Amino acid sequence: MKVSVGKTEVLFEFEKLRKTVTGYAAVIFFLVFAGITGLYVITDFSAYQIAIFINGGVLAVLLIVGILNFSKKNQLGSVILNLILGPALFANVWLYLGKEIGIHYLFVVFAIMPFVTISRQYKFFQWLFGLTSIAILALLLNLETLGSINESLPAIVFMIGNYTFIGASLLFISLMFVVYTRMIEKYEALLKAKELEVAEMAEEVRRMALEDTSTGAVTHRKLEELIIAEIARSDRYETPFSLIMFSLSDIKEVFAVYGQEKGEKIMEQLVHIVRTDLRLVDILGRWTDGEFVIFMPEIKLHQAVYVAQRLVSIIASTEFLPKIKLPSNFAVIQRLPGEKFEALTDRLHQLMRKSVEEGENRISN
Q1: CATH number of the domain encompassing residue 314
Q2: 38 and 97 Cβ atoms separated by less than 8 Å
Q3: Per-residue DSSP letters for 308-340?
Q4: pTM for the whole thing?
Q5: Number of structural domains in the chain
Q6: Statement to judge: residues 82 and 192 lie in one domain
Q7: Does 192 reside within a domain?
Q8: pLDDT of 103-160, one tens digit each?
């Protein structure tokens, strides 16, 4: 079903989204860590040498993540980003920038980041990094600060930094909510479209299972099912039914001379003229390539023979191709009490062979 195509399209969009988010996160937090590192340098280089060195390493890793993200190894970049970003930023905020910074907003961001940036193929890492964020936050809650840098900064700088963290966190969460909501809506719309397509395909398959595509007659399988069902009904209610088998006598030669396409058009025309002479309850089916069977519920043998005689005359007078009239052969039977399907159809085939042996425009019953 083309449904899988739609699903693949949506999943591809999700993967593109993951790659985009990872790229933006790498760029944004590269700037964030560069700013933090600059604050350490400006405030007191000697006091924050270890923090400057570690954050310099984080900057290098983020640069690598950016490079990986734009290569075919973007999933590796996502894993590295989540592995380093949360712990590094938590440590900076909690140990050096002060507990007053909006750590609770940051925690939410880094708890959901793995689920946004890492493919579901690596869902082990999603849960691992999500749990790691919780574990690190719990650990930091029990650590004393090493000397908050905000004590050395003007209040306005600290306030701007704090609200910047909070604003960026809320913006990230809002953006992801909007984008993923739109993706889900798109997915649902595609699913509805595919459901409609599947329903149409199912109807087409059902129609093809019931109807011969070239002539419009019902298929052999469906006709067989109807006859078997009627046998059961006939046994229960003792109702009669008859079968008429017929074919055009020279149809093989027609296919050989005029080709498959014109041969099938003749078959289609034959079905049309026969069907217009039947009752609504009578079923015309294609039994083999060149043979057709008419299933006539609650019709006795003499009535079916009369229908066959009329059809012989109609077919004989019909011009199928310019200046070409084709003879036909018919076999007519009424089902005997207790007769099984195999015996019924064997008897029909025997009468059909007899009709062909006797000549053209013959009816055997």
Answers
A1: 3.30.70.270
A2: no
A3: HHHHHHHHHT-EEETTEE--EEEEEEEPPTT--
A4: 0.47
A5: 2
A6: yes
A7: yes
A8: 666 667 777 777 777 777 777 777 887 787 777 777 766 665 555 666 666 667 667 7
